[in-house]
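Why run this: before we spend reagent on co-expression, it is cheaper to look at a predicted model of the complex and decide which construct boundaries make sense. The entries below are exactly what would go into the expression plan.
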Amino acid sequence: MLNPNLKLNPKILNEECELKPTRAGFGEGLVEAGRENKNVVALCADLTESTRNEDFAKEFSDRFFEMGVAEQNMVTVAAGLAIAGKIPFVSSYAAFSPGRNWEQIRTTIAYNDANVKIAGHHAGLYTGPDGATHQMLEDIALMRTMPNMKVIVPCDAEEARKATLTSSKIWGPIYLRFAREKTRVITSKETSFEVGKAELFWESNKKKPDLLICACGPLVYEAILAAQNLEKEKISVAVLNVHTIKPLDEKTILHFARLAGAVVTVEEHQIVGGLGSAVAELLTAKAPMPLERIGMKDEFGQSGKPTELFDFYGLNKEEIIKAGKKVIQRKK
Amino acid sequence: MQYLEKTANRIREQIVGMLTEAGSGHSAGPLGMADIFTALYFHVLHHNPKNPNWVERDRLILSNGHICPVQYATLALAGYFPIEELTTLRKINSRLQGHPHRGSLPGVETTSGPLGSGLSQAIGVALAARLDGAKHRVYCLLSDGEHQEGNTWEAIMATAKYKLSNLTAIVDRNNIQIDGFTEDIMPLESLRKKYEAFGWHVLEIDGHNISRFVDATREAAAVYERPTVIIAHTIPGKGVSFMERDYRWHGKPPTKEEAKVALKELRTLGNRIQSEHE
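The model came back. C-alpha coordinates follow.
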Protein backbone atom coordinates (compact mmCIF):
# COMPACT_ATOMS: atom_id res chain seq x y z
CA MET A 1 0.00 0.00 0.00
CA LEU A 2 0.99 3.64 -0.36
CA ASN A 3 3.29 4.63 2.48
CA PRO A 4 1.02 6.63 4.82
CA ASN A 5 3.95 8.40 6.48
CA LEU A 6 4.87 10.22 3.28
CA LYS A 7 1.51 11.94 2.87
CA LEU A 8 1.40 11.18 -0.83
CA ASN A 9 -1.42 12.59 -2.90
CA PRO A 10 -4.43 10.47 -1.83
CA LYS A 11 -5.88 10.76 -5.33
CA ILE A 12 -2.92 9.12 -7.12
CA LEU A 13 -4.80 5.97 -7.95
CA ASN A 14 -8.02 7.78 -8.90
CA GLU A 15 -9.05 8.87 -12.34
CA GLU A 16 -9.42 12.52 -11.32
CA CYS A 17 -5.83 12.84 -10.03
CA GLU A 18 -4.31 16.23 -10.82
CA LEU A 19 -1.97 16.27 -13.84
CA LYS A 20 0.94 18.70 -14.14
CA PRO A 21 4.27 18.60 -15.99
CA THR A 22 7.43 18.41 -13.89
CA ARG A 23 8.78 21.44 -15.78
CA ALA A 24 5.95 23.49 -14.23
CA GLY A 25 7.22 22.51 -10.80
CA PHE A 26 10.65 23.70 -11.87
CA GLY A 27 9.23 27.08 -12.86
CA GLU A 28 7.54 27.49 -9.47
CA GLY A 29 10.61 26.36 -7.55
CA LEU A 30 12.79 28.77 -9.52
CA VAL A 31 10.62 31.75 -8.62
CA GLU A 32 10.62 30.71 -4.95
CA ALA A 33 14.39 30.35 -5.03
CA GLY A 34 14.66 33.79 -6.64
CA ARG A 35 12.56 35.32 -3.90
CA GLU A 36 14.58 33.67 -1.16
CA ASN A 37 18.00 34.53 -2.51
CA LYS A 38 18.89 37.51 -4.68
CA ASN A 39 21.96 35.69 -5.97
CA VAL A 40 19.79 33.21 -7.87
CA VAL A 41 19.92 34.00 -11.59
CA ALA A 42 18.52 32.14 -14.60
CA LEU A 43 19.74 31.62 -18.15
CA CYS A 44 17.86 30.16 -21.06
CA ALA A 45 18.66 29.22 -24.67
CA ASP A 46 15.65 30.49 -26.63
CA LEU A 47 13.19 28.21 -24.81
CA THR A 48 11.93 30.51 -22.08
CA GLU A 49 8.26 29.52 -22.26
CA SER A 50 8.65 25.78 -22.71
CA THR A 51 11.29 25.50 -19.98
CA ARG A 52 8.98 27.51 -17.67
CA ASN A 53 11.44 30.35 -17.10
CA GLU A 54 8.75 32.93 -17.92
CA ASP A 55 7.63 33.75 -14.40
CA PHE A 56 11.18 34.15 -13.14
CA ALA A 57 12.03 36.33 -16.15
CA LYS A 58 9.03 38.56 -15.44
CA GLU A 59 9.62 38.93 -11.72
CA PHE A 60 13.42 39.23 -11.88
CA SER A 61 14.09 40.69 -15.32
CA ASP A 62 17.57 41.92 -14.31
CA ARG A 63 18.52 38.43 -13.14
CA PHE A 64 17.31 36.61 -16.23
CA PHE A 65 19.62 36.19 -19.23
CA GLU A 66 18.36 35.15 -22.65
CA MET A 67 21.42 33.55 -24.26
CA GLY A 68 19.97 32.59 -27.64
CA VAL A 69 20.46 29.22 -29.33
CA ALA A 70 23.96 28.77 -27.92
CA GLU A 71 24.03 26.11 -25.22
CA GLN A 72 27.81 25.91 -24.97
CA ASN A 73 28.07 29.60 -24.25
CA MET A 74 25.08 29.50 -21.90
CA VAL A 75 26.51 26.96 -19.45
CA THR A 76 29.94 28.55 -19.57
CA VAL A 77 28.58 32.04 -18.87
CA ALA A 78 26.78 30.39 -15.95
CA ALA A 79 30.12 29.04 -14.74
CA GLY A 80 31.47 32.60 -14.80
CA LEU A 81 28.45 33.93 -12.89
CA ALA A 82 28.92 31.16 -10.33
CA ILE A 83 32.61 31.82 -9.70
CA ALA A 84 31.59 35.44 -9.13
CA GLY A 85 29.12 34.40 -6.42
CA LYS A 86 25.83 33.89 -8.25
CA ILE A 87 23.66 30.76 -8.25
CA PRO A 88 22.74 30.24 -11.90
CA PHE A 89 20.02 27.90 -13.18
CA VAL A 90 20.52 27.10 -16.88
CA SER A 91 17.65 25.76 -18.94
CA SER A 92 17.38 24.11 -22.31
CA TYR A 93 16.21 20.79 -23.65
CA ALA A 94 18.27 17.96 -22.22
CA ALA A 95 19.20 16.87 -25.76
CA PHE A 96 21.17 20.12 -26.12
CA SER A 97 22.14 20.78 -22.52
CA PRO A 98 23.90 18.58 -21.38
CA GLY A 99 23.67 16.89 -24.80
CA ARG A 100 25.71 19.41 -26.76
CA ASN A 101 27.74 21.16 -24.07
CA TRP A 102 29.03 18.23 -22.04
CA GLU A 103 32.69 19.27 -22.13
CA GLN A 104 31.94 22.82 -21.02
CA ILE A 105 29.92 21.42 -18.12
CA ARG A 106 32.71 18.99 -17.24
CA THR A 107 35.53 21.54 -17.27
CA THR A 108 34.00 24.85 -16.25
CA ILE A 109 31.26 23.61 -13.90
CA ALA A 110 32.11 20.18 -12.49
CA TYR A 111 35.92 20.36 -12.36
CA ASN A 112 35.70 24.06 -11.53
CA ASP A 113 33.25 23.20 -8.73
CA ALA A 114 31.05 26.06 -9.90
CA ASN A 115 27.69 26.41 -8.16
CA VAL A 116 25.59 25.94 -11.31
CA LYS A 117 22.25 24.10 -11.55
CA ILE A 118 21.61 22.52 -14.94
CA ALA A 119 17.96 21.97 -15.81
CA GLY A 120 17.54 19.43 -18.63
CA HIS A 121 14.00 19.80 -19.97
CA HIS A 122 11.92 17.65 -22.33
CA ALA A 123 13.95 14.61 -21.33
CA GLY A 124 12.74 11.12 -22.16
CA LEU A 125 9.91 9.75 -24.31
CA TYR A 126 7.36 12.28 -23.02
CA THR A 127 8.77 14.57 -25.71
CA GLY A 128 6.75 12.29 -28.04
CA PRO A 129 5.97 13.75 -31.49
CA ASP A 130 9.24 15.75 -31.67
CA GLY A 131 10.98 12.45 -32.35
CA ALA A 132 14.26 10.84 -31.38
CA THR A 133 16.41 13.96 -31.86
CA HIS A 134 14.62 15.61 -28.95
CA GLN A 135 13.93 12.56 -26.78
CA MET A 136 17.00 12.70 -24.57
CA LEU A 137 17.63 9.22 -23.17
CA GLU A 138 21.32 9.40 -22.34
CA ASP A 139 21.57 12.43 -20.07
CA ILE A 140 21.59 10.64 -16.73
CA ALA A 141 24.57 8.59 -17.92
CA LEU A 142 26.35 11.71 -19.19
CA MET A 143 25.97 13.55 -15.92
CA ARG A 144 26.36 10.66 -13.51
CA THR A 145 29.94 9.93 -14.54
CA MET A 146 31.11 13.46 -13.71
CA PRO A 147 32.86 14.02 -10.37
CA ASN A 148 31.26 16.77 -8.21
CA MET A 149 27.92 16.45 -10.04
CA LYS A 150 24.66 15.50 -8.37
CA VAL A 151 21.80 14.08 -10.46
CA ILE A 152 18.12 14.47 -9.55
CA VAL A 153 15.12 13.11 -11.48
CA PRO A 154 11.87 14.33 -9.87
CA CYS A 155 8.83 12.05 -10.15
CA ASP A 156 6.22 14.82 -10.37
CA ALA A 157 5.69 18.57 -10.44
CA GLU A 158 5.61 18.94 -6.65
CA GLU A 159 8.85 17.04 -6.20
CA ALA A 160 10.32 19.08 -9.07
CA ARG A 161 9.43 22.28 -7.22
CA LYS A 162 11.08 21.04 -4.04
CA ALA A 163 14.13 19.74 -5.91
CA THR A 164 14.61 23.10 -7.63
CA LEU A 165 14.24 25.15 -4.47
CA THR A 166 16.47 22.77 -2.50
CA SER A 167 19.12 22.85 -5.23
CA SER A 168 19.47 26.60 -4.78
CA LYS A 169 20.42 25.99 -1.16
CA ILE A 170 22.90 23.17 -1.70
CA TRP A 171 26.39 24.12 -2.79
CA GLY A 172 27.72 22.66 -6.01
CA PRO A 173 26.84 21.47 -9.50
CA ILE A 174 23.47 19.73 -9.80
CA TYR A 175 21.70 18.26 -12.80
CA LEU A 176 17.89 18.33 -12.68
CA ARG A 177 15.82 16.39 -15.21
CA PHE A 178 12.31 17.38 -16.29
CA ALA A 179 9.65 16.04 -18.65
CA ARG A 180 7.36 17.81 -21.08
CA GLU A 181 3.93 16.23 -20.64
CA LYS A 182 1.51 16.58 -17.79
CA THR A 183 1.90 13.64 -15.44
CA ARG A 184 0.22 12.59 -12.22
CA VAL A 185 1.03 14.59 -9.12
CA ILE A 186 2.11 11.73 -6.85
CA THR A 187 3.41 13.69 -3.86
CA SER A 188 1.99 16.50 -1.77
CA LYS A 189 3.47 19.61 -0.18
CA GLU A 190 3.89 17.57 3.02
CA THR A 191 5.84 14.73 1.40
CA SER A 192 9.42 14.85 2.62
CA PHE A 193 12.17 15.46 0.09
CA GLU A 194 15.86 15.24 0.78
CA VAL A 195 18.57 15.14 -1.87
CA GLY A 196 20.28 11.75 -1.74
CA LYS A 197 17.46 10.00 0.11
CA ALA A 198 15.28 7.39 -1.61
CA GLU A 199 11.71 7.22 -0.32
CA LEU A 200 9.57 4.13 0.14
CA PHE A 201 6.43 5.06 -1.81
CA TRP A 202 4.82 1.61 -1.74
CA GLU A 203 5.12 -0.61 1.31
CA SER A 204 4.94 -4.35 0.89
CA ASN A 205 2.11 -6.11 2.69
CA LYS A 206 4.55 -8.62 4.14
CA LYS A 207 7.56 -8.01 6.39
CA LYS A 208 9.81 -9.28 3.61
CA PRO A 209 8.73 -8.17 0.14
CA ASP A 210 9.16 -10.60 -2.75
CA LEU A 211 10.39 -7.81 -4.98
CA LEU A 212 11.93 -4.33 -4.83
CA ILE A 213 11.19 -1.84 -7.60
CA CYS A 214 13.50 1.17 -7.87
CA ALA A 215 12.05 3.87 -10.11
CA CYS A 216 12.67 7.51 -10.96
CA GLY A 217 10.82 10.24 -12.83
CA PRO A 218 7.15 10.12 -13.82
CA LEU A 219 7.42 6.34 -14.36
CA VAL A 220 7.31 5.99 -10.56
CA TYR A 221 3.55 6.05 -11.11
CA GLU A 222 3.72 2.97 -13.40
CA ALA A 223 5.84 1.26 -10.76
CA ILE A 224 3.15 1.91 -8.14
CA LEU A 225 0.47 0.52 -10.48
CA ALA A 226 2.62 -2.56 -11.09
CA ALA A 227 3.04 -3.07 -7.34
CA GLN A 228 -0.71 -2.78 -6.80
CA ASN A 229 -1.38 -5.36 -9.51
CA LEU A 230 1.29 -7.77 -8.31
CA GLU A 231 -0.12 -7.69 -4.79
CA LYS A 232 -3.46 -8.83 -6.19
CA GLU A 233 -1.50 -11.87 -7.39
CA LYS A 234 -0.06 -12.39 -3.89
CA ILE A 235 3.34 -11.00 -4.78
CA SER A 236 4.38 -8.39 -2.24
CA VAL A 237 6.36 -5.43 -3.49
CA ALA A 238 8.30 -2.45 -2.18
CA VAL A 239 8.65 0.58 -4.46
CA LEU A 240 11.41 3.12 -3.89
CA ASN A 241 11.31 6.55 -5.50
CA VAL A 242 15.01 7.02 -6.24
CA HIS A 243 14.83 10.68 -7.24
CA THR A 244 18.52 11.21 -6.58
CA ILE A 245 20.59 9.02 -8.90
CA LYS A 246 23.77 10.57 -7.58
CA PRO A 247 24.64 10.41 -4.75
CA LEU A 248 22.71 7.14 -4.70
CA ASP A 249 20.99 6.26 -1.42
CA GLU A 250 22.92 3.01 -1.10
CA LYS A 251 21.79 2.31 2.44
CA THR A 252 18.06 2.39 1.73
CA ILE A 253 18.34 0.51 -1.56
CA LEU A 254 20.51 -2.22 -0.01
CA HIS A 255 18.17 -2.54 2.96
CA PHE A 256 15.09 -3.26 0.84
CA ALA A 257 17.02 -5.21 -1.82
CA ARG A 258 18.35 -7.59 0.85
CA LEU A 259 14.84 -8.08 2.22
CA ALA A 260 13.43 -8.80 -1.25
CA GLY A 261 16.29 -10.66 -2.91
CA ALA A 262 15.26 -9.43 -6.38
CA VAL A 263 15.12 -5.99 -7.95
CA VAL A 264 13.55 -4.27 -10.97
CA THR A 265 14.66 -0.78 -12.01
CA VAL A 266 12.39 1.54 -13.99
CA GLU A 267 13.46 4.68 -15.85
CA GLU A 268 12.80 6.73 -18.96
CA HIS A 269 16.40 6.41 -20.08
CA GLN A 270 18.74 3.94 -21.73
CA ILE A 271 19.19 0.87 -19.55
CA VAL A 272 22.90 1.60 -19.94
CA GLY A 273 24.34 4.24 -17.64
CA GLY A 274 21.25 5.42 -15.79
CA LEU A 275 19.40 4.34 -12.66
CA GLY A 276 19.49 0.68 -13.74
CA SER A 277 23.25 0.79 -14.07
CA ALA A 278 23.69 2.63 -10.79
CA VAL A 279 21.64 0.01 -8.93
CA ALA A 280 23.39 -2.84 -10.79
CA GLU A 281 26.78 -1.45 -9.80
CA LEU A 282 25.69 -1.23 -6.18
CA LEU A 283 24.17 -4.71 -6.01
CA THR A 284 27.06 -6.38 -7.83
CA ALA A 285 29.50 -4.92 -5.35
CA LYS A 286 27.54 -5.24 -2.12
CA ALA A 287 24.69 -7.74 -2.51
CA PRO A 288 24.64 -9.74 -5.77
CA MET A 289 21.09 -10.76 -6.69
CA PRO A 290 18.81 -11.04 -9.74
CA LEU A 291 18.06 -7.70 -11.40
CA GLU A 292 15.90 -6.70 -14.37
CA ARG A 293 16.08 -3.25 -15.91
CA ILE A 294 13.15 -1.47 -17.57
CA GLY A 295 14.21 1.32 -19.90
CA MET A 296 15.27 1.94 -23.49
CA LYS A 297 17.19 -1.07 -24.70
CA ASP A 298 20.07 0.55 -26.55
CA GLU A 299 17.93 2.13 -29.24
CA PHE A 300 16.58 5.52 -30.29
CA GLY A 301 12.93 6.48 -30.04
CA GLN A 302 10.66 7.84 -32.79
CA SER A 303 7.75 10.24 -33.22
CA GLY A 304 4.46 9.28 -31.63
CA LYS A 305 2.18 9.99 -28.70
CA PRO A 306 3.93 9.39 -25.39
CA THR A 307 1.47 6.64 -24.42
CA GLU A 308 2.06 4.88 -27.75
CA LEU A 309 5.82 5.15 -27.28
CA PHE A 310 5.73 3.83 -23.71
CA ASP A 311 3.78 0.81 -24.93
CA PHE A 312 5.98 0.32 -28.01
CA TYR A 313 9.22 0.40 -26.07
CA GLY A 314 7.87 -1.48 -23.07
CA LEU A 315 8.05 1.24 -20.44
CA ASN A 316 4.73 0.56 -18.71
CA LYS A 317 3.19 -1.31 -15.82
CA GLU A 318 2.63 -4.49 -17.87
CA GLU A 319 6.35 -4.77 -18.62
CA ILE A 320 7.25 -3.97 -15.02
CA ILE A 321 4.92 -6.76 -13.87
CA LYS A 322 6.50 -9.19 -16.36
CA ALA A 323 10.00 -8.18 -15.30
CA GLY A 324 9.00 -8.56 -11.65
CA LYS A 325 7.75 -12.11 -12.14
CA LYS A 326 10.81 -12.99 -14.18
CA VAL A 327 13.27 -11.66 -11.63
CA ILE A 328 11.47 -13.51 -8.80
CA GLN A 329 11.77 -16.75 -10.83
CA ARG A 330 15.50 -16.12 -11.10
CA LYS A 331 15.84 -16.15 -7.30
CA LYS A 332 15.32 -19.90 -7.30
CA MET B 1 59.30 50.85 -18.27
CA GLN B 2 62.80 49.39 -18.10
CA TYR B 3 61.79 47.64 -14.91
CA LEU B 4 58.84 46.04 -16.70
CA GLU B 5 61.02 44.88 -19.59
CA LYS B 6 63.50 43.34 -17.16
CA THR B 7 60.67 41.63 -15.33
CA ALA B 8 59.38 40.20 -18.61
CA ASN B 9 62.82 38.78 -19.25
CA ARG B 10 62.93 37.21 -15.79
CA ILE B 11 59.55 35.64 -16.48
CA ARG B 12 60.91 34.20 -19.74
CA GLU B 13 63.84 32.66 -17.86
CA GLN B 14 61.45 31.07 -15.40
CA ILE B 15 59.32 29.73 -18.24
CA VAL B 16 62.28 28.03 -19.90
CA GLY B 17 63.44 26.64 -16.56
CA MET B 18 60.09 25.25 -15.48
CA LEU B 19 59.25 23.71 -18.85
CA THR B 20 62.64 22.00 -19.03
CA GLU B 21 62.13 20.65 -15.53
CA ALA B 22 58.59 19.49 -16.34
CA GLY B 23 59.64 17.71 -19.54
CA SER B 24 56.37 18.57 -21.28
CA GLY B 25 54.21 21.61 -21.95
CA HIS B 26 54.00 24.56 -24.30
CA SER B 27 56.93 26.90 -25.02
CA ALA B 28 56.13 29.37 -27.79
CA GLY B 29 52.86 30.86 -26.46
CA PRO B 30 54.07 31.55 -22.90
CA LEU B 31 57.29 33.22 -24.14
CA GLY B 32 55.30 35.31 -26.61
CA MET B 33 52.93 36.56 -23.91
CA ALA B 34 55.55 37.43 -21.27
CA ASP B 35 55.42 41.16 -22.04
CA ILE B 36 51.65 41.35 -21.80
CA PHE B 37 51.54 39.32 -18.58
CA THR B 38 54.16 41.61 -17.10
CA ALA B 39 52.21 44.70 -18.11
CA LEU B 40 49.00 43.25 -16.63
CA TYR B 41 50.28 42.03 -13.27
CA PHE B 42 52.90 44.75 -12.68
CA HIS B 43 50.96 47.74 -13.98
CA VAL B 44 47.41 47.37 -15.30
CA LEU B 45 45.52 45.08 -12.90
CA HIS B 46 44.22 46.20 -9.54
CA HIS B 47 45.10 43.18 -7.46
CA ASN B 48 46.70 42.13 -4.22
CA PRO B 49 48.98 39.08 -4.20
CA LYS B 50 48.71 38.92 -0.40
CA ASN B 51 44.92 38.82 -0.65
CA PRO B 52 44.11 36.90 -3.83
CA ASN B 53 40.37 36.88 -3.08
CA TRP B 54 40.10 40.65 -2.54
CA VAL B 55 36.55 41.36 -3.71
CA GLU B 56 37.42 44.52 -5.63
CA ARG B 57 40.29 43.00 -7.62
CA ASP B 58 40.27 43.04 -11.40
CA ARG B 59 39.67 39.54 -12.77
CA LEU B 60 41.94 37.95 -15.33
CA ILE B 61 40.38 34.97 -17.07
CA LEU B 62 42.94 32.93 -19.01
CA SER B 63 41.05 31.18 -21.80
CA ASN B 64 43.95 29.43 -23.50
CA GLY B 65 45.05 27.56 -20.40
CA HIS B 66 47.96 25.87 -22.15
CA ILE B 67 50.06 29.03 -21.83
CA CYS B 68 49.78 28.81 -18.03
CA PRO B 69 53.58 28.65 -17.50
CA VAL B 70 53.67 32.38 -18.20
CA GLN B 71 50.83 33.01 -15.76
CA TYR B 72 52.43 30.83 -13.08
CA ALA B 73 55.81 32.54 -13.47
CA THR B 74 54.19 35.98 -13.36
CA LEU B 75 52.06 35.14 -10.31
CA ALA B 76 55.15 33.83 -8.50
CA LEU B 77 57.19 36.93 -9.31
CA ALA B 78 54.27 39.12 -8.27
CA GLY B 79 54.28 37.39 -4.88
CA TYR B 80 51.30 35.02 -5.00
CA PHE B 81 53.42 31.99 -4.07
CA PRO B 82 57.12 31.09 -3.72
CA ILE B 83 59.16 31.18 -6.92
CA GLU B 84 60.76 27.83 -5.96
CA GLU B 85 57.38 26.19 -6.43
CA LEU B 86 57.56 26.80 -10.19
CA THR B 87 59.72 23.69 -10.61
CA THR B 88 56.80 21.53 -9.47
CA LEU B 89 54.91 22.30 -12.70
CA ARG B 90 53.08 19.22 -14.02
CA LYS B 91 54.36 17.02 -11.19
CA ILE B 92 52.24 14.93 -8.86
CA ASN B 93 50.73 16.74 -5.85
CA SER B 94 51.67 20.12 -7.31
CA ARG B 95 49.46 23.21 -7.17
CA LEU B 96 50.77 23.97 -10.66
CA GLN B 97 48.59 21.73 -12.80
CA GLY B 98 49.45 21.21 -16.48
CA HIS B 99 46.45 23.38 -17.26
CA PRO B 100 45.21 25.84 -14.64
CA HIS B 101 42.68 24.70 -12.03
CA ARG B 102 40.68 27.13 -9.93
CA GLY B 103 41.20 26.49 -6.26
CA SER B 104 44.57 24.81 -6.69
CA LEU B 105 46.71 27.93 -6.92
CA PRO B 106 46.12 31.45 -5.57
CA GLY B 107 45.63 33.96 -8.37
CA VAL B 108 44.09 31.48 -10.80
CA GLU B 109 40.55 32.75 -11.37
CA THR B 110 39.21 29.77 -13.29
CA THR B 111 39.88 26.40 -14.80
CA SER B 112 40.86 26.33 -18.46
CA GLY B 113 42.56 24.20 -21.05
CA PRO B 114 39.86 23.00 -23.42
CA LEU B 115 39.78 25.95 -25.81
CA GLY B 116 36.95 28.34 -26.47
CA SER B 117 35.36 28.64 -23.04
CA GLY B 118 37.25 31.50 -21.37
CA LEU B 119 35.38 34.42 -22.91
CA SER B 120 32.04 32.89 -21.92
CA GLN B 121 33.22 32.65 -18.32
CA ALA B 122 34.49 36.23 -18.48
CA ILE B 123 30.99 37.28 -19.61
CA GLY B 124 29.53 35.61 -16.53
CA VAL B 125 32.01 37.34 -14.24
CA ALA B 126 31.33 40.69 -15.94
CA LEU B 127 27.55 40.25 -15.73
CA ALA B 128 27.84 39.42 -12.02
CA ALA B 129 29.92 42.58 -11.50
CA ARG B 130 27.25 44.62 -13.24
CA LEU B 131 24.48 43.05 -11.11
CA ASP B 132 26.48 43.81 -7.96
CA GLY B 133 27.29 47.35 -9.07
CA ALA B 134 30.99 46.51 -8.71
CA LYS B 135 33.64 48.62 -10.39
CA HIS B 136 36.34 46.07 -11.13
CA ARG B 137 37.26 45.16 -14.70
CA VAL B 138 37.38 41.75 -16.31
CA TYR B 139 40.19 40.82 -18.69
CA CYS B 140 40.09 37.73 -20.83
CA LEU B 141 43.16 36.39 -22.62
CA LEU B 142 42.49 34.31 -25.70
CA SER B 143 44.66 32.59 -28.26
CA ASP B 144 44.13 33.16 -31.96
CA GLY B 145 43.74 29.43 -32.62
CA GLU B 146 40.78 29.13 -30.29
CA HIS B 147 38.82 31.41 -32.62
CA GLN B 148 38.30 28.21 -34.59
CA GLU B 149 36.00 27.05 -31.77
CA GLY B 150 32.29 27.75 -32.21
CA ASN B 151 31.97 28.51 -28.50
CA THR B 152 34.30 31.51 -28.93
CA TRP B 153 31.97 33.11 -31.49
CA GLU B 154 28.90 32.39 -29.37
CA ALA B 155 30.67 34.33 -26.63
CA ILE B 156 31.76 37.16 -28.93
CA MET B 157 28.11 37.57 -29.94
CA ALA B 158 26.88 37.52 -26.34
CA THR B 159 29.48 40.01 -25.06
CA ALA B 160 28.27 42.52 -27.63
CA LYS B 161 24.61 41.83 -26.85
CA TYR B 162 25.15 42.68 -23.20
CA LYS B 163 27.36 45.68 -24.06
CA LEU B 164 29.95 44.55 -21.56
CA SER B 165 32.24 47.55 -21.56
CA ASN B 166 33.70 46.30 -18.25
CA LEU B 167 35.25 43.41 -20.17
CA THR B 168 38.40 43.63 -22.28
CA ALA B 169 39.44 40.72 -24.45
CA ILE B 170 43.09 40.34 -25.40
CA VAL B 171 43.87 38.07 -28.34
CA ASP B 172 47.37 36.65 -28.68
CA ARG B 173 47.73 36.88 -32.45
CA ASN B 174 50.88 34.81 -32.88
CA ASN B 175 49.73 33.02 -36.03
CA ILE B 176 50.67 29.52 -34.91
CA GLN B 177 48.86 26.48 -33.60
CA ILE B 178 49.93 22.88 -33.02
CA ASP B 179 49.61 21.68 -36.61
CA GLY B 180 51.03 24.78 -38.30
CA PHE B 181 50.26 28.38 -39.16
CA THR B 182 46.68 29.43 -38.41
CA GLU B 183 46.07 30.67 -41.93
CA ASP B 184 47.04 27.24 -43.31
CA ILE B 185 45.10 25.21 -40.75
CA MET B 186 41.85 27.21 -40.67
CA PRO B 187 42.13 30.85 -41.74
CA LEU B 188 41.07 33.46 -39.16
CA GLU B 189 41.57 36.69 -41.08
CA SER B 190 40.29 39.24 -40.98
CA LEU B 191 39.99 38.99 -37.20
CA ARG B 192 39.57 42.76 -36.93
CA LYS B 193 36.68 42.87 -39.39
CA LYS B 194 35.03 39.90 -37.75
CA TYR B 195 35.11 41.49 -34.31
CA GLU B 196 33.92 44.80 -35.76
CA ALA B 197 31.06 43.04 -37.53
CA PHE B 198 30.08 41.50 -34.18
CA GLY B 199 29.88 44.97 -32.62
CA TRP B 200 33.18 45.24 -30.77
CA HIS B 201 35.64 48.09 -30.47
CA VAL B 202 38.91 46.77 -31.92
CA LEU B 203 42.47 47.84 -31.17
CA GLU B 204 45.53 46.29 -32.81
CA ILE B 205 48.94 46.62 -31.24
CA ASP B 206 52.46 45.23 -31.11
CA GLY B 207 52.16 42.78 -28.23
CA HIS B 208 55.79 43.30 -27.22
CA ASN B 209 55.44 47.07 -26.83
CA ILE B 210 54.47 47.30 -23.17
CA SER B 211 53.62 51.00 -23.14
CA ARG B 212 51.47 50.64 -26.23
CA PHE B 213 49.64 47.75 -24.55
CA VAL B 214 49.05 49.76 -21.39
CA ASP B 215 47.64 52.61 -23.49
CA ALA B 216 45.31 50.17 -25.23
CA THR B 217 43.93 48.88 -21.92
CA ARG B 218 43.24 52.51 -20.89
CA GLU B 219 41.45 53.20 -24.14
CA ALA B 220 39.41 50.02 -23.66
CA ALA B 221 38.36 51.16 -20.19
CA ALA B 222 37.20 54.47 -21.66
CA VAL B 223 34.94 52.93 -24.30
CA TYR B 224 31.34 52.69 -23.13
CA GLU B 225 28.47 50.55 -24.34
CA ARG B 226 30.79 48.22 -26.22
CA PRO B 227 33.34 45.58 -25.31
CA THR B 228 36.88 46.10 -26.58
CA VAL B 229 39.25 43.54 -28.00
CA ILE B 230 42.96 44.20 -28.12
CA ILE B 231 44.46 42.13 -30.91
CA ALA B 232 48.07 41.82 -29.80
CA HIS B 233 50.46 40.79 -32.53
CA THR B 234 53.15 38.72 -30.90
CA ILE B 235 56.10 36.60 -31.90
CA PRO B 236 55.71 33.06 -30.64
CA GLY B 237 58.79 32.00 -28.70
CA LYS B 238 59.85 35.66 -28.31
CA GLY B 239 63.29 36.04 -26.74
CA VAL B 240 64.64 32.63 -27.75
CA SER B 241 65.81 32.97 -31.33
CA PHE B 242 65.55 29.32 -32.33
CA MET B 243 61.95 29.15 -31.12
CA GLU B 244 60.70 32.41 -32.59
CA ARG B 245 57.99 32.10 -35.26
CA ASP B 246 58.41 28.29 -35.43
CA TYR B 247 55.11 26.50 -34.89
CA ARG B 248 56.95 23.31 -33.94
CA TRP B 249 57.65 24.99 -30.58
CA HIS B 250 53.95 25.44 -29.88
CA GLY B 251 53.51 22.32 -27.84
CA LYS B 252 56.92 21.05 -26.68
CA PRO B 253 59.45 21.98 -24.01
CA PRO B 254 63.18 22.54 -24.60
CA THR B 255 65.69 19.78 -23.79
CA LYS B 256 68.29 20.53 -21.13
CA GLU B 257 70.82 21.48 -23.81
CA GLU B 258 68.37 23.69 -25.66
CA ALA B 259 67.40 25.33 -22.38
CA LYS B 260 71.06 26.21 -21.71
CA VAL B 261 71.26 28.01 -25.04
CA ALA B 262 67.90 29.68 -24.47
CA LEU B 263 68.76 30.88 -20.97
CA LYS B 264 72.11 32.25 -22.11
CA GLU B 265 70.36 34.19 -24.82
CA LEU B 266 67.77 35.57 -22.38
CA ARG B 267 70.37 36.46 -19.73
CA THR B 268 72.62 38.24 -22.20
CA LEU B 269 69.70 39.92 -24.00
CA GLY B 270 70.78 38.22 -27.23
CA ASN B 271 74.51 38.46 -26.49
CA ARG B 272 74.30 42.24 -26.06
CA ILE B 273 75.39 42.07 -22.43
CA GLN B 274 77.41 39.65 -20.31
CA SER B 275 75.51 37.22 -18.14
CA GLU B 276 76.23 37.26 -14.44
CA HIS B 277 75.47 33.53 -14.41
CA GLU B 278 78.52 32.63 -16.53
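Chain A touches chain B at residues 41, 62-63, 65, 67-68, 70, 72-73, 76-86, 88, 103-104, 107-108, 111-113 (CB under 8 Å). Chain A has eleven helices and 14 strands. Bring this page to Monday's planning discussion.
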